[in-house]
Write a structure and sequence with these properties.
Blueprint lengths: L8 H13 L2 E3 L9 E3 L7 H14 L16 E4 L29 E7 L2 E8 L1 E2 L6 E2 L8 H14 L11 H15 L11 H33 L6 H22 L3
Parallel strand pairs: 2-3
Antiparallel strand pairs: 1-5, 3-4, 4-5, 6-7
Helix pairs in contact: 3-4, 3-5, 4-5
C-alpha cells in the first residue's frame, strides 16, 4: 500500500475537496475546481479578478500573463446559506444565519462563473440532482477512504507522544479522537485557513484531554470510595499523597530554619 503523506497540507486539502464534492452538484463536472473564495458576489471587482487569475496560473502552472486569462474561465466559490432550508427554532437564541438553517456538515457554498458577462450559478453544496430541479440533501456524499486513513494515522501518531502513550486507556483516547475527526473533519473552512493539519491536531488534542479528564474524575471517585471503606486507593492517589506530605515537610523545615 502506498504510504499516506498525511502531514502534507496540500494532500489533506485535496482529499477534503474530493469529499465535499461528493455532497455537491455541478452543471458540469469541471466546475468543481474553484479559483477564489468570496463571501458575496458583490465582492467581485478588478482586484478579486486579478487575484483569482494569479491563483489559477499558479495552480495550473501556466506560463502566461494574467491578462491572457479570460474572466469567463474563472470559478468563484461563494460561501452562502442561500440554498440551505430554514429550520426555525433550531437554536433558542440564534446569533448567526447558520443558527436559523438546517445543520450541515461543512460550511455551504455555491460556485459561480461569468457567462456572456453575466454571473450564473454552476454548482451547489449539499445538493442532489440538477441545479434547477434538484433538492437539498445531506446524506448522499461520503468522505474519501484516503482522508479517513489520514485521520486514523494522525490519531495513531498523536497516541505515541510521550505525554499520553503511558496511559492504560490510550486505545480509548485514540478511538474517541478518530470519532471526533469523523464528525468534524469536513467542517474545516478553506476560506479562513489553508492549514487543516493544525485544525485536526487541535481537535485530536481536545479529544485526548477530554478522555484523560474523564478518567481522572472517575479514578478520584473510585479512590474516595476505597478510602471510605478503609481500603488502599490507587497507587496514583498514594503517590500523590506521599508527595504532598513530603512537600509539606519540606516547607515546614524551610520555615523553621529561616533566620
Amino acid at each position: 500500500m502506498k504510504k499516506t503523506n498525511y502531514l502534507n497540507n496540500k494532500d489533506i486539502l485535496s482529499e477534503i475537496h474530493k469529499s465535499k464534492n461528493s455532497f455537491c452538484s455541478y452543471s458540469d463536472p469541471k466546475y468543481h475546481i474553484y479559483d477564489i473564495i468570496i463571501n458575496s458576489l458583490s465582492e467581485i471587482n478588478n482586484t478579486i479578478l486579478a487575484e483569482a487569475k494569479k491563483i489559477k496560473i499558479k495552480r495550473e502552472n501556466l506560463q502566461i500573463p494574467i491578462d491572457e486569462i479570460d474572466d469567463q474561465d474563472l470559478i468563484f466559490r461563494v460561501m452562502t446559506y442561500h440554498h440551505i432550508p430554514d429550520q426555525p427554532g433550531r437554536k433558542k437564541n440564534p446569533k448567526t444565519i447558520a443558527d436559523t438553517k438546517v445543520k450541515v456538515n461543512f460550511p455551504p457554498f455555491q460556485h459561480w462563473k461569468y457567462d456572456n458577462n453575466n454571473l450564473i450559478c454552476v454548482g451547489k453544496s449539499h445538493w442532489k440532482g440538477d441545479l434547477e430541479n434538484g433538492k437539498f440533501c445531506l446524506d448522499h456524499g461520503i468522505s474519501t477512504d484516503k482522508l479517513a486513513l489520514m485521520w486514523m494515522k494522525l490519531c495513531e501518531r498523536y497516541a505515541t507522544r510521550g505525554n499520553v502513550r503511558g496511559y492504560t486507556y490510550n486505545d480509548e483516547m485514540r478511538g474517541q479522537a478518530i470519532l471526533q475527526l469523523a464528525q468534524i473533519g469536513l467542517q474545516f473552512d478553506e476560506s479562513k485557513s489553508q492549514n487543516p493539519f493544525a485544525y485536526y491536531t487541535a481537535a485530536v488534542t481536545n479529544s485526548f484531554v477530554r478522555v484523560i479528564n474523564l478518567e481522572k474524575r472517575n479514578q478520584n471517585i473510585r479512590d474516595d470510595i476505597l478510602e471510605m471503606n478503609d481500603m488502599n486507593p490507587s497507587y496514583t492517589r498514594q503517590a500523590n499523597d506521599e508527595w504532598a506530605v513530603a512537600l509539606k515537610r519540606e516547607a515546614e523545615f524551610q520555615e523553621n530554619n529561616t533566620f
